[in-house]
Amino acid sequence: MIDLHTHILPGIDDGSPNAGTSMRMLRQMAVQGTQILCASPHYYADEQSIHEFCEKRDVAFAEFRQAGLGEYEDQPIVLPAAEVAFFPGISEQKELERLCIKGTHTLLLEMPFCEWNDFQIEEVTSLSLDLGYQIVLVHPERFLFSKNNRRLLERLQELPIGIQINAGSLLRWQSRKQALRLLQEAACPLLGSDAHNMTTRPPNLGEGRSVIERKLGTAFWQRMQESAARLTGCSFART
């Protein structure tokens, strides 16, 4: 399995607080069958430059390696990435590629937790069509609290972008129906754990996969994983 969205790096954001937790998360992901995962800490343009963020991410990776990352053959592959919060002028940011999943042009984009507007949609459109980024909208189900945002998400879905649903949204009955509908409507449906720790937001990709296979079928799940492999530039075993 490929997990497109995690906060497994130690001490860099609101995810794993230390390397010990990161290693426990990694072991749990391996038990569930995850083979490849993106380490995607939050990036907020109003808090730090891209250069500063990448330096901090490198430090977190070094701490993770010291704790045991990469020591065992059966460990998942961990790819540097970022969960980029939308900001005005994002389509004009020259260093944005440094925030993509390493070795790709795939950008994990978090839309604002507010009412969206046409300007934001135009910026995302420019990122996709003019600049050639492979945009993945992360957990859009969390933003559909208004008719306006639902309407604008439909516009975004006309673009060649990925729609990444959080596994947790499939595990709660209140959000499962909407999450499944978004996956079915997406041209490129994707799944991420958005794991932050081992307690309140633990690795749960395996549980999310079970819901998808039960509700949408194994072939649908395999198509999702093939899309994830393409967006990460990785191959994976069909499991």
From TrEMBL:
Stored PANTHER family: TYROSINE-PROTEIN PHOSPHATASE YWQE
Uppermost EC category: hydrolase
Species assigned in the record: Subdoligranulum variabile
Reaction(s) catalysed (UniProt annotation): O-phospho-L-tyrosyl-[protein] + H2O = L-tyrosyl-[protein] + phosphate
Pfam family membership, one: CpsB_CapC
Protein EC: 3.1.3.48
Sequence similarity: Belongs to the metallo-dependent hydrolases superfamily. CpsB/CapC family.
One annotated GO molecular function: protein tyrosine phosphatase activity
Keywords: Hydrolase, Protein phosphatase
Source taxon at top rank: Bacteria
InterPro entries: Caps_polysacc_synth_CpsB/CapC, Pol/histidinol_Pase-like
Protein name per UniProt: protein-tyrosine-phosphatase
Entry annotated with the keyword Electron transport: no
Membrane keyword on record: no
